[in-house]
Design brief:
The chain is α+β, with helices and mostly antiparallel strands.
Length: 168
């Protein structure tokens, strides 16, 4: 191999290394992580039928949603939720709730909590809930209705939410 050829190979390797490194960095930064209040174990719910403005993004997203066996509305494998503006404001944003037990609950922002209905930081409502699942109330399990808490829908939902990942 000539000196000129070796030089070209080194330059190509360097360029590929930079491309790979940048790709990895961009991929790793595809979401932003938010902490939660110390008590974030209560998970409220709301009826999808409360979304009535047919021209809204929320309504249009519900037209794509299906109701699962526990009564939760789902779009592309993600639970439909509402949150305060501290976390996200764009309907359709993918969000992961990372539980203290390690479970990751994949969600999509399907409604926005009004700032007047949340605390001063716009993170949680007066009942302490940072997330409100959008559901078909008629199909919720009896225990969820009795307790008023979606934590009773699945074992992995019980406990505190450690962090919230909001995807770009």
């Amino acid at each position: 191999m000539t000196k000129k050829t070796k030089s070209r190979v080194c330059v190509i390797c360097l360029i590929m290394a930079i491309i790979l490194a940048n790709g990895m960095v961009c991929h790793a930064k595809s979401y932003r992580t938010y902490g939660t209040p110390s008590s974030s174990n209560y998970k409220s719910y709301m009826s999808y039928r409360a979304i009535t403005d047919k021209s809204s993004k929320q309504y249009k997203l519900q037209q794509k949603a299906k109701t699962n066996s526990k009564g939760i509305r789902v779009v592309n494998g993600r639970y439909c939720i509402a949150m305060g503006s501290y976390y996200a404001t764009k309907i359709g944003t993918k969000i992961d709730l990372v539980m203290k037990n390690g479970k990751v609950i994949k969600c999509i922002l399907a409604d926005q909590k009004a700032n007047r209905d949340t605390d001063a930081t716009h993170r949680y409502t007066s009942d302490g809930s940072i997330v409100e699942f959008i559901v078909d109330i008629d199909r919720l399990p009896k225990k969820v209705k009795l307790m008023g808490d979606m934590s009773y829908a699945y074992k992995g939902m019980k406990g505190n939410i450690k962090t919230v990942r909001v995807y770009k």
